[in-house]
Every structure is written in structure tokens, then in C-alpha cells.
Amino acid sequence: MATAQLLQMRDQQVRGRPQVAWLEGVGLNYGQVRALVNFNFKVSAGELVALLGPNGAGKTTAIKLLLGLATPTSGRVSVFGVDPANVATHTRVGAMLQVGRVPETLRVREHIDLFSSYYPNPLPIAETLAIAGLEDLADRKFGDLSSGQKQRVLFALGICGNPDLLFLDEPTVGLDVEARHLLWEEIRKLLGRGKTVVLTTHYLEEADALADRIAVINKGSIIAEGSPAEIKARTGGKKIRCVTNLAPAVVRTLSGVLEVHQDRDAMVIHASQAEDVLRGLLNLDLEVSGIEVTSAGLEEAFLALTRDNPV
Amino acid sequence: MATASTAISSVVNLQRPNPVGICFKEAKYEFLKNLRNPMYSVSTVLFPLMFYVLFGLVMGKQMIGGISTTVYLIPAYGTFGVMGASLFGTAASLASERGLGWLQVKRASPMPPFAYFLAKIVMSLIFSTIVVLLLLLLGVSFGGVHLPAITAGKLVLTLVGGSLPFCAMGLAIGYFAGPTSAPAVINIFYLPMSFFSGLWMPFMFLPKFIQHIAVFLPPYHLSQLALSLIGAGRGEPSLGHWEALIGFTMLCLGVARWGHQRDEKANG
């Protein structure tokens, strides 16, 4: 329906919007481990920013800082112009965090009822249930839900307070494809209603599908930042998989090849672009078979980005 | 776009919801959560009652210092029962929720932190009340116990009020025990403390040195307060017992506070 139109209108509005949250020159150490290093990150009202990076890159740490759950070793954190640890700030913020264990004997409706009571202007419980697709599960105990359904309850707890700023830490981990797309649709609707969303993910596809802006994190620093189109342009490698008798050393000499490795009986070639490599490959080995060409995944994106920006 | 503009304008309202209402709801769901968890609800209620049935009712009527065992064992197992309800009601859930991320979700919300702790204490008090009332009911129904209503009332109030030090102790343990090891850690304190305080067996059946240990243990002081109500105490002034319990509570709250601050510093 009008979601696409709403998003377009919003795109025009986002530019020039005030910043609602930022991390300025933030460093954070866990003992000897430097989780974040001179980290600069800003969130404008009404946009969706994705923090994209591998596990342990510092995504969750950045979210914890913005929620006031962690204090920076150096630098400054601000949400709605004040310290995020301030409880009043929390009334305007929602969060979906990764949790090891949620009390299992409470029903879905009870969890939402309790969390809604913390906020000054919560959504009606029925609406929260509808947005998270939990109407049919409202009277189930949390412990009886599938992992995908559990994720949806955590999402519901994030949005039930009708927050202006929503943090989603790996929201679609453990969801199947269908559930993932449903959740994406719900997140887009929130943006259509003027909310600001910060999400972390390690799926390039997810960041691409949702974000206005992507910040790629590696080893505690932002190594690239821009619109999904810009990020993809910088990481647009291809992955070629094939069965060949050629030695890896020979394949490496082809123009455009970035990296070669053997995967069981197949050879996997990372290339800046596929066409030249395929031409060369077919020239050298007429027997080459089982050719598959795919866009580089996040792993390759990181190879490309970290090569450009050695940390 | 109507929804968009209302969503943005509602931002201005920063009025906080009523904290009393939050506390009530928090306590209600804390109670339901534990009631539906048989590991807590059944074992908390069942063990003291089972001990009472075995040692009080089945063993037959014997006298301890001129008082029937069925009467004597109500304050003793009552103390044992409220300790269990309080320690497991606070420490086990706090350790698990701290260690496995749930407390962090709560801290990210605008929940007033005291509501969280208050709920655990209120929940424990409710279970303590249930345990003591059921012990009395068993005694009166099957043990030939006759207590004046006023004495029974004082007994309930003393035991339930006297469970607060153990709620404080539970919070302290909850801040230092791991999420899975917490029940074991609780038992390491709970069971020996009960034995050395004379809750399982009256002192006359125990070696003399145990009495010298007992005076350093909080359950001893609570059980003496309760026993003195039925004339089975050891005649020590009750003020000393109260002082010991209050001092112990302060100590535990201090340890819990230290653990709390340590957690906050450890960056969630």
C-alpha cells in the first residue's frame, strides 16, 4: 500500500532533521579488550541506520552505550541531548536486545502488559500484539514458543512503549525467511510513522533492504559509512565457484582475481568482477564445470573494505 | 500521514506513569512467574511441610522441654520455610536474570529499578506467609496444636517479618552467584545454617559446641524469637535477637549494593 510513498516522503524529510543520538570519539575497553576505538556515530530523527559488522565487531557495545547500559572509557554519548542512562530518556526509547533467557512461565500478553506499564504513552496491548504478529499467541507462555516467536515477543517489548527511538540488536537472528520479511515490513511501517531506528545486523541483505544509511563496523571502528548503494558499490565483488583442474596458483594470475581457495572438490574464486575471470578460466581449462557466480556476501565485503581501510 | 504527525507530537509528553502502579504490576507478575514454576513454588512449600509431617506428625507425640514436638516444630520449620522462600525467591531469579541478559532488557526500559527488587521481596513474603499458614493448619488439624489466636498471629508476623533479612541475603547472593550455580550456592548457606541453628533438631539432641556456633547464625535468632512466643525459647532477651537480625540485614544490603555497583561498572 502507501508504505513506499510514505518512505519516499520521509526520505525527503530526513535530510536536515535534527540529530537524536550520537557517539563522539568514544572508546570503550573491557579490561584489556578494546571494544570500541575512537567511535563516531550520529543518528538523525526519522532515519534507519544499520550497524553492519561481524560478531564481536562492537555493534552491540555501541547499542549498549546508546541505551546507557555501558559507560564509555573516553568520549561522549548523548541521546535526545542528554545522558542516555537518564531514566526519563528511557521513556522515549525502545530496545530489542539479545537475551539468553526470558522468564518462561509468563504469557506473551503478561510480558507486554508489564512492559507497557513502564511507559507514559504505551500502545494499546492489542495493537502491540498485532504489530508483532502475536495475536494468536497472546495467551501462550513464553517458554512454549518457537525461537522465531520468541524474537517477535522481544520485538513487541521494544515497541510497546511507543518509543520515538528504537534499537534493534540483531532483530532477525533465528528467524526463517518468511518471518524475517514480515519483521522487515513491520520495521518499515514504524519508519512510516516517524520513528527513528538503529539496528545491528551481520546480514548485508538486511541492511540493504531496510536502511537509509549503513555504517560498517570492524574491530571497534566504523570503516565505511554511506547509503546502501554506496556501500554495495564499494564492496561489489563476485564469488565464482567451479570445478577445475587448474592449480590455484595459475588461477591467481588471471586479471581481476582477488583470492582463491579450495572448498572440498570445488574452487572458490573471489573476483572484483566476474566476466574477465570467467573468460580466462574457460580459455585455460575447457573442462571447467559447475560454474556458479554469486554476489560477494558480507564476508567478501569485509575483505574488500578492510583492504581499503587497514585498521 | 495522520499517524505520523500524532506519533511525533506525542513525543512531548514526558509525564511518568505512576510508580506505585508499576510496583504493583511488577510484584503481581513476579508472583505469577514463580507460582507457575514448580521448582520454586512446590519445593518452597513442600519441604518444610514434609519435614513437619515426618518429624512432627509421623514420629508421634514427644515432648521437648515440656512442649509437644508438634508445637515446637512450627516455629522451627517455619523459620526453615521462610528462609527457603526468601533465599530462592530472590537469589535464584536475580542470579539468572542478571547472568542471562533479562535484567539488562529491564534496565534498558524506563522501569524504576526499585520496582524490580521490591517485587522479588513482596513475592517472597507472600510465599513465606503461605508456608507458615500451612504449617499452622497442619499442626492444628493433625497435630493437636492449640494456640491462642493472638499467639498464632504473632507467630505469623514474626516469621514473615523475620524473613526480610533472608531476602536481603538472597539479593547479596544473587549478585555474586552465576545463573546456573545459584541454587547450589544458596543451599551451601541454607542447609548448614538451618542445621547449626537447631531448626531441624532441637539443641538438646545436638552436641554442645553447636550452640556456640548457633549464636552467630541469623536463623538461630529468628527461630528463638518465634520459639519464645510459644514459651520454648532459651530465655535470651528478644532485643538481642532483633539487633542481630537487623545488623545482618544491613550487612547483606551492603554486599548487594556493592554487587550492584560492580555490575553497573562492568558495563552491562
Provide a concise account of the structure shown:
The complex is a heterodimer of chains A (311) and B (268). Chain A is of the alpha/beta class and 311 residues long. Chain A has helices spanning 3-14, 59-66, 87-90, 108-117, 125-131, 147-159, 177-192, 204-210, 228-234, 248-252, 274-284, 298-308; strands at residues 19-30, 33-44, 48-52, 74-79, 93-96, 165-169, 196-201, 213-218, 221-226, 238-243, 257-263, 266-271, 289-295.
Q: Top keywords for this entry?
A:
heterodimer; A: 311 residues; alpha/beta; 6-stranded mixed β-sheet; 12 helices; B: 268 residues; mainly alpha; two-stranded antiparallel sheet; 74% helix; disordered N terminus
As a percent range, the share of helical residues of chain A equals 25-40%
Oligomer: heterodimer
Low-confidence parts of chain B lasting 5 or more residues at pLDDT below 50? 1-13
Name the chain pair whose interface involves the most residues: A-B, 46 and 42 residues
- The strand order across the widest sheet of chain A is 5-6-7-3-8-9
pLDDT averaged over residues of chain B = 91
Q: How many DSSP helices of chain A?
A: 12
- Content of β-strand of chain B: under 5%
Q: What is the C-alpha radius of gyration of chain A, as a whole number of Å?
A: 22 Å
Strand order of the largest sheet of chain B: 1-2
Detail the poorly predicted runs of chain A.
none
Q: What's the tally of helices of chain B?
A: 12
Q: C-alpha Rg of chain B, in Å?
A: 21 Å
Give the strand content of chain A. Answer: 25-35%
Mass-distribution shape of chain B: globular
Give the beta-strand count of chain A. Answer: 13
The helicity of chain B comes to over 70%
Largest sheet of chain B: 2 strands, antiparallel
What is the SS-derived class of chain A? Answer: alpha/beta
Main sheet: strands, sense, barrel of chain A? 6 strands, mixed
Task: Give the terminus-to-terminus CA distance of chain B.
Answer: 39 Å
